[in-house]
Design brief:
heteropentamer; A mainly alpha (313); B alpha/beta (263); C mainly alpha (290); D alpha/beta (233); E alpha/beta (358); A: 313 residues; mainly alpha; ABC transporter involved in vitamin B12 uptake, BtuC; two-stranded antiparallel sheet; 4 strands; 74% helix; 3% strand; E: 358 residues; alpha/beta; five-stranded parallel sheet; four-stranded parallel sheet; 11 helices; 41% helix; globular; binds adenosine-5'-triphosphate; binds magnesium ion
């Protein structure tokens, strides 16, 4: 397991998982679930850069996710912008929003930051819900199928590979970042903003950079989901989705890129597995979440990794 | 020659407390300049004012002749100011060597895109930072702990880690806030050696410390603060024989300690 | 003028509900730095248990008391079974545990009770009181009054009792709290019990106005949390003022500006306030010496 | 009064305390000397019950307290001034002190408060300000005051002089002697080994988690090993 | 196979649970009943139900699961328009008949080969209400709509058809689906000069609170609710304030008050009795939609003599004269709903019960 510590170990692990899984997949349904995992994981990796590394919470990340999703719905339908360009625009506008609100918001700490980001997310969701002539309102709107080079991108298998590719690249970029001067600066300001400042780090700027990066991750994931699902609804931008993303980060492990994948996988697949409990489904989901966190309190990947390495705390 | 640091009539209040009150002094290049004084006299606050952690409500700070009053700390760092903290500000979740690598921040000139794609320039940079950090860890005697999480190091080691990190910045002026706290006499002597070596390498050092043996032994000049004001400034001998300083600060214990500095 | 009064009444009614929920947050937060996302579920338990006990024939006050007892029991169970075993975990982990607990409790409620909406008779009738051309329901006074009473009790507890200080000390520095002999396990249990009780009382009081169902908790928790942060987390007075303010903002926003975006208006004001006062209206600014 | 038998404790795989035997008689001042990372803090924490032990026993007044919760140990009148001060930052100074008397439910707080205020007048002047704003040394005074508020039978001091002005070091050591005179037993960890051994009855020297040697304080002051390794003479 | 697998994805929990919950209960109890009576075409029915909690993405995943894993032959489900729209492409690709239980007209307009639905559309509800208003000489109204999918869609539909009936919407307010006080919006409506009636499209607890606030403010104008409140719990929740409220709904709500000669009477009383006995809860028209969907499907299977999807689909499209809880269903290649306005009855609440409005 030691190899999982290194950057290339993590990438290798992801690659192996992505390549091996389809062998065991009996149907498209499994491809769909896996695709949803990859998409969530991509957003979660971005959020993890913000939360796990820089130590800044965001309870509004679904807002950025929603912007990415709606961009590929609204762009081609209402504005005549090609889908891929719309996705890029979505990512850019999420990044821009993060950039604009980031400065004032990121001055806040802890729970105050949480409530401010929460508010920001809710504002986005509210616009998507209310401006029905653009967004289709609460029932959402359809997204036309992605056509690349005259070729229709369709079906879970194809999306499995596309989203896996994005996940892999996303993880690679994130791992690079963590291991770079910027990443070290982020981890440093997480532990002591004062020391970071005195050490020459422009804390406000660094927080802003990672906030923008994480927003872009979320928006790209949102666009992928919208393409894949063929529709968008305001739920993707909603508060509950934000909470879900945060839960994935913590469940998998703050500050662990592999953890982001694991957290997403657990939270996407668990409800599918729990359908056997019928009426007790939600009860079981809550229970499982609690059990995971009680027994793997620093998140699945970091805790297990340390257990295996024989370290405590 | 120009003063490395010039503090003029500086002051700040917290609620009703005048933590620092109209204090002025200068530090000349290459000096070891100590600030001593009773608890709560304003020593740490003085460091906070100089390093931009607090903004002074009165007065001015000049660094190498340039007015830097009110500049944020990260700008001051680029002007060659570095410091350690009385209340440890270690990056506990990072390893010892990473802590010191963060200290190299201002010397790491690679763009975000390069970092995202881990271009060769970034890899070279990482290697360089790591090498420099290792040298510094070795300098403070922590080379064998390089890859341990900082959170698991004992108190004394953390103090030295902070020194290594602050040196990584390549400062012209280094502020050390109680570097020997929590160290026994022998360990303090090691710190003493470190500081002298740092000074010898051309870094100007400002020191806050309650270990009189250390202070009296290595200081070129000493500033005594009391209730935020300047009590006296002078050489070790002047200071330790000043009756006011003895009454307010040294006491019997301080006098014996100071006397031991002569050995 | 009558319109203005009516908006104000609406705001105070809704605001008092938020204030009650926000007050519930304060205690657990003060003991542990944890935002208990299951706080809304305590409100739900308060309402639902009362509804079902009342329907089963218990007199309303007895049903309400039973609801509070059930909620306290649930609060204690949550603390003992889920928080205590993970007490050394980082706060985010504990927060996720409370999110899990909230999903669990909602799931439990949907099997134990049902998925319908329920109401309770208002304590002092439904006849609106008319003031200056505006109408206010008597139940609103119950909610408002209770928020004030609970606020006073909490204020006294945190400011004038050693146990109250012990709660604050536990959150400030758990390690030191144990060293001075505070039984932090007890403090945590106490804080969950009291929070649950406050939540349940809120649930009983607001059900005649807002109705209740197995999933009312989420939104109340969200608004209560926002209110608490606006007021300054951990401060009872902040909780009350924050709650009333959010309620009033929503009402005036809906009345004068745009009902579709009334929540947005409230959040915009919260954001605005936080930009100017990063610790909320009554929060203590945090000092960390370096 | 305090007997520690073959105590081991650590952090995961790292053993910081490796089979330590110590005994402290009633009314004694016993000091523990050791280098950075020798395990002093770990040992003190284990006595207070805030650090899990992996082996051995701790007896207090004949009772095995190894399995007791920290608050139960405080209830038996064991108080500690922890390393790094650990004051309650957001609370006022007076609240910090009152919480020191938590074990006694705050009884006679006024009398104890006056006593502490007379030792540390700054604390009185700042009684209603937030502890987090105090200077390092002031916080150290507060931590000492807080421990004294409980009226301890056994006082565990982890580097009480750290960050204190020299004149206060005298005072603290003086106060320790007064405490002893009033019936308290003191177990003192101090980097300022010279000062500590000067007021102590006996001393232990700990090296990488093990007691290297022990003895009469006066003898230790003369011991060459102690002189060269800890006193820097 | 010796069983016929029918799939369903419903919003059993979440904001639309009071749709999904009775639908779920209804499907389960009738599948059991059908099986006890010998099944369909000699085969037992097997029902697979998933809860999408009101989320479209979940719905799509479960739809895929029904197709790929459970290999169902037909689907009755989709509690909300959003979830239904998410599932349609999946079932269209798989070529399986899908009978939706959601309201909006977009589901079947334009007609999609494999998609049907049982509830009246929100547009029809608007038309029915406006017919009633027109008859009473009302031409200026205020609207207060929920911002959930149901309210929002109906708000748009009503504003679209209002001119057809010469009706002007002078005040247009909204409230969030979980709001607990609507007096500010109603105060504005109250203050709008010239209104003759107020219409409240929405479902869940919102309309109950609107109704209570309406009374609290002492507004005297007639209040129209939508078919979204067509369950007894609305009357319980709104209590006295519900008195006099008018709404369009299926005959199910007034089952026992129907004329004995009414051809719908047998069906609706039967369903009502069965539902209320088995679930212990008051009947709603929402569960009725599931009932209709299930029987339209099984009837089609019987007529086709097989459960082969294509054959069943063709037969569903040929459904004529089917008597359901919502009314008589006559489907065709151009109409995958098959209900007309006569299926709606105008009801009024009197003495704490539904009455057929005069
Ligand atoms: N952020 C702050 N908030 C409130 N008071 C402060 C703050 N910073 C400093 N003070 C006050 O200013 C005075 C000087 O504090 P400072 O930390 O500079 O003392 P010091 O000389 O470093 O003392 P020590 O030797 O104990 O470290 C103290 O009374 C302290 O309480
Ligand atoms: N949280 C921790 N995790 C892992 N190891 C730790 C931790 N805390 C302390 N240690 C290790 O335990 C050993 C003993 O540490 P301890 O703090 O008890 O030493 P000490 O004698 O008090 O040192 P100092 O004089 O520096 O305070 C050290 O080797 C240290 O690295
Ligand atoms: Mg200081
Ligand atoms: Mg120590």
């Amino acid at each position: 397991m030691a190899f999982l510590k290194g950057k290339y170990g993590v990438l290798l692990a992801i690659a192996i998982i992505v390549l091996i899984l389809p062998v065991a997949f009996p149907s498209n349904y499994y491809f769909r679930i896996a695709t949803l995992v990859w998409i969530s994981a991509l957003a979660v990796i971005g959020l993890n850069l913000l939360m796990g590394y820089a130590g800044q919470v965001s309870l509004g990340h679904a807002g950025f996710f929603g912007m990415g999703a709606y961009a590929v719905a609204v762009g081609p339908t209402h504005l005549g912008i090609p889908p891929v360009a719309s996705a890029l625009l979505g990512a850019a506008s999420a990044g821009l929003l993060a950039f604009v609100v980031g400065r004032p918001i990121l001055k806040l700490r802890g729970h105050y930051l949480a409530v401010a980001t929460l508010g920001m997310g809710i504002l986005v969701a509210m616009v998507l819900n209310n401006e029905a002539q653009w967004t289709g309102g609460p029932d959402g709107m359809p997204v036309s199928r992605l056509v690349l080079f005259g070729f229709k991108v369709k079906g879970p298998v194809m999306w499995y590979w596309i989203t896996a590719g994005f996940l892999f690249v996303g993880a690679w970029l994130a791992l690079n970042l963590v291991d770079s001067p910027l990443g070290r600066a982020l981890r440093a300001l997480h532990d002591s903003e004062t020391a970071a400042r005195v050490g020459g780090i422009d804390v406000a700027r660094h927080k802003l950079i990672v906030f923008v990066i994480s927003a872009v991750y979320a928006a790209v994931a949102g666009s992928l989901l919208a393409f894949f699902d063929g529709l968008v609804t305001p739920n993707t931008a909603g508060f509950l989705h934000s909470i879900q993303l945060v839960t994935m980060v913590v469940l998998g492990g703050m500050g662990s890129i592999l953890g982001s994948l694991v957290g997403a996988a657990v939270l996407v697949t668990l409800p599918q597995a729990l359908t056997v409990f019928h009426d007790y489904e939600h009860l079981m989901l809550g229970l499982m979440m609690m059990l995971f966190m009680i027994f793997l309190r620093r998140g699945i990947v970091p805790t297990l990794r340390d257990r295996i390495a024989g370290r405590v705390q | 020659m120009n003063a490395v640091l010039e503090v003029k009539d500086i002051g700040i209040d917290f609620g009703g407390v005048r933590a620092v009150d109209e204090v002025s002094f200068e530090i000349r290049p290459g000096q070891i300049f100590s600030i001593i004084g009773p608890n709560g006299a304003g020593k740490t606050t003085m460091f906070n004012l100089i390093s931009g952690v607090y903004t002074p409500s009165r007065g001015a700070v000049k660094l190498a002749g340039e007015d830097v009053t009110g500049l944020p700390p990260h700008r001051l760092a680029r002007l060659g100011l570095s410091r350690t903290f009385q209340n440890l500000q270690v990056y506990f979740r990072m390893t010892a060597v990473e802590n010191v690598m963060v200290g190299r921040h201002i010397h790491e000139h690679v763009g975000i895109t390069a970092q995202l794609f881990n271009l060769p320039s970034v890899r070279a940079q990482n290697r360089a930072s790591r090498q420099k950090a290792m040298e510094l860890l070795d300098f403070v005697g922590l080379a064998d702990k390089a890859d341990e999480p900082a959170g698991s190091l004992p108190y004394g080691a953390l103090k030295r880690l902070e020194i290594a990190r602050s040196l990584a910045l390549g400062p012209k002026l280094l502020l050390l806030d109680e570097p020997a706290a929590g160290c026994n006499a022998v360990e303090t002597e090691e710190i003493d050696g470190l500081i002298q070596e740092i000074a010898k390498s051309g870094v100007t050092v400002a020191l806050v410390e309650h270990d009189m043996r250390l202070v009296m032994k290595i200081s070129d000049r000493i500033l005594v603060l009391d209730y935020g004001r300047k009590l006296i400034e002078g050489t070790a001998t002047e200071v330790r024989n000043d009756p006011e300083v003895i009454a307010a600060y040294l006491g019997a214990h301080g006098q014996t300690e100071a006397a031991r500095a002569d050995h | 003028m009558a319109d203005f009064l009516q908006f104000a009444f609406s705001g105070l009614t809704v605001g008092a509900i938020y204030a009650l929920v926000a007050l519930g947050f304060t205690i657990i937060y003060n003991a542990s730095d944890v935002v208990n996302f299951a706080q809304g579920e305590f409100v739900m338990i308060g309402g639902m248990v009362t509804v079902f006990a009342y329907a089963a024939g218990l007199p309303l006050p007895v049903a309400a008391l039973l609801a509070v007892i059930v909620a306290v029991f649930v609060g204690l169970a949550l603390e003992w079974l889920a928080i205590e075993p993970a007490r050394d975990a980082p706060p985010v982990t504990l927060i996720i545990i409370t999110i899990g607990a909230s999903i669990f409790l909602r799931g439990l409620a949907q099997v134990v009770f049902d998925k319908q909406f329920h109401s309770l008779p208002a304590f002092s009738g439904d006849e609106p009181i008319r003031i200056g051309g505006a109408a206010l329901l008597p139940q609103s006074f119950w909610v408002l009054g209770s928020a004030i009473v609970i606020f006073l009790a909490l204020y006294a507890f945190f400011n004038h009792t050693l146990t109250g200080k012990a709660v604050l000390a536990t959150a400030a520095n758990r390690f030191a709290a144990r060293l001075v002999g505070i039984n932090t396990t007890f403090v945590m249990a106490l804080s969950f019990a009291v929070s649950a009780a406050i939540g349940a009382i809120a649930g009983v009081l607001v059900t005649p106005i807002t109705l209740t169902s197995y999933d009312v908790g989420t939104l109340l928790a969200l608004k209560g949390f926002a209110s608490a942060m606006l007021g300054g987390m951990g401060n009872p007075i902040g909780a009350v003022i924050g709650g009333l303010l959010v309620g009033l903002l929503e009402a005036f926003g809906a009345g004068y500006i745009n009902s579709e975006y009334k929540d947005a208006i409230a959040f915009l004001v919260i954001l605005g306030v936080l930009f100017v006062m990063p610790q909320g209206l009554f929060g203590r600014s945090h000092t960390e010496r370096v | 009064m305090l007997t520690i038998e073959n105590l081991t404790s650590g952090y995961g795989r790292i053993e910081a305390v490796k089979g330590v035997d110590i005994h402290v008689e009633k009314g004694e001042i016993v000091t523990l000397v050791g280098a950075n990372g020798a395990g002093k803090t770990t040992l003190l924490r284990a006595i207070s019950g805030v650090q899990p032990i992996t082996g051995g026993r701790i007896l207090f007044e004949g009772e095995d307290i190894s399995r007791l919760k920290p608050h139960q140990r405080v209830a038996r009148a064991i108080a500690q001034v922890p390393e790094g001060r650990q004051v309650f930052g957001p609370l006022t100074i007076e609240d910090n002190l009152r919480l020191g008397a938590y074990r006694r439910n705050g009884k006679n707080s006024a009398r104890y408060l006056e006593r502490i205020y007379s030792i540390f007048p700054v604390l009185k002047a700042r009684r209603n300000s937030i502890a987090g704003g105090l200077s390092g040394g002031q916080q150290q005074m507060l931590a000492i005051g807080r421990a004294l508020m409980s009226g301890p039978k056994l006082l565990l001091l982890d580097e009480p002089s750290m960050g204190l002005a020299p004149i206060l070091v005298d005072q603290i050591l003086e106060a320790v002697k007064v405490m002893r005179a009033e019936g308290a037993t003191v177990f003192l960890v101090e980097q300022n080994a010279f000062a500590a051994l000067s007021i102590a009855d006996r001393g232990y020297v700990i090296e990488t988690g093990k007691i290297a040697f022990s003895g009469n304080a006066r003898d230790l002051l003369e011991d060459e090993r102690v002189k060269s390794a800890y006193l820097g003479l | 196979a010796d069983t016929i697998k029918i799939g369903s994805v419903l919003s059993i929990t979440g904001p639309a649970s009071f749709l999904g919950d009775p639908e779920d209960k209804t499907l389960k109890m009738y599948v059991e009943k059908i099986n006890a009576e010998g099944g369909v075409n000699g085969k037992q029915l097997e029902l697979v139900v998933y809860d999408d909690a009101g989320d479209a993405n979940n719905a799509k995943t479960f739809a895929t699961r029904l197709v790929e894993e459970d290999k169902v032959v037909a689907i009755v489900g989709g509690s909300t328009t959003g979830t239904t729209m998410a599932m349609i492409p999946v079932f269209e690709d798989a070529e399986l008949p899908f009978i939706s239980l959601a309201g909006a007209v977009v589901i079947i307009d334009p007609v999609k080969k494999w998609v049907f639905k049982t509830p009246h559309t929100d547009k029809m509800a608007c038309q029915k209400i406006f017919e009633d208003m027109k008859a009473k000489g009302i031409s200026k109204i205020g609207m207060i709509s929920g911002t959930g999918g149901f309210g929002k869609s109906m708000q748009a539909q009503c504003k679209g058809v209002a001119p057809d009936y010469g009706i002007e919407v002078l005040a247009d307010e909204t409230y969030g689906p979980k709001d607990s006080d609507m007096t500010p919006q109603l105060t504005n409506i109250k203050g709008t000069a010239g209104l003759q009636a107020v219409l409240n499209p929405g479902f869940g607890q919102g309309p109950a609170i609107v109704t209570r606030n309406y009374k609290q403010l002492g507004i005297e104008l007639p209040l129209y609710q939508s078919h979204g409140v067509a369950s007894k719990s609305f009357i319980d929740l709104a209590a006295d304030a519900a008195e006099g409220v008018r709404l369009p709904a299926a005959a199910l709500l007034v089952a026992d008050k129907l004329d004995d000669a009414d051809p719908q009477k047998a069906v609706v009383t039967g369903y009502k009795a069965m539902y209320e006995e088995k679930s212990g809860q008051a009947v709603s028209t929402f569960g009725g939609h599931a009932f209709d969907g299930l029987f339209i499907l099984t009837d089609a299977m019987k007529r086709a003599g097989s459960e082969e999807p294509a054959a069943v689909r063709d037969e569903i499209e040929k459904t004529t004269g089917f008597m359901g809880t919502a009314g008589v269903v006559n489907m065709s290649a151009t109409d995958h709903l098959g209900l007309d306005l006569t299926a709606f009855r105008m009801l009024e609440i009197k003495g704490g019960d539904w009455m057929l409005a005069k």
